[in-house]
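Hi, here's the filled form for the chain we discussed.

Project: internal
Contact: R.S.
Residues: 71
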Amino acid sequence: MNNKSKMAFSKKNYTLMVIGLAVILLGFFIMSLDKAEYGFGFLGLTLGPIFVLAGFIIEFFAILSKDKKKE
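And the returned structure, exactly as it came back:
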C-alpha cells in the first residue's frame, strides 16, 4: 500500500472550493439586488442564476480535480 498524503483534498481543491462558494454567494447577492416585482427582472432571473450555476460548476471541478504530483 502506498503511503500518500492522508488529506482528501489538496490546497488547490480548497482554494477552488472557496472561490466557488464566493461565486455562489455573489449570485445570490446579485439576485437580491433586483428591484423588479418579485425579483422578475434581469438580475433576478438571468444574471444571478448564471453566477450561482457557475459557482456550482466550480465546486464540481474543485471536488473532482486531482494534483498531478500525487498520482
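Let me know if anything looks off before we file it.
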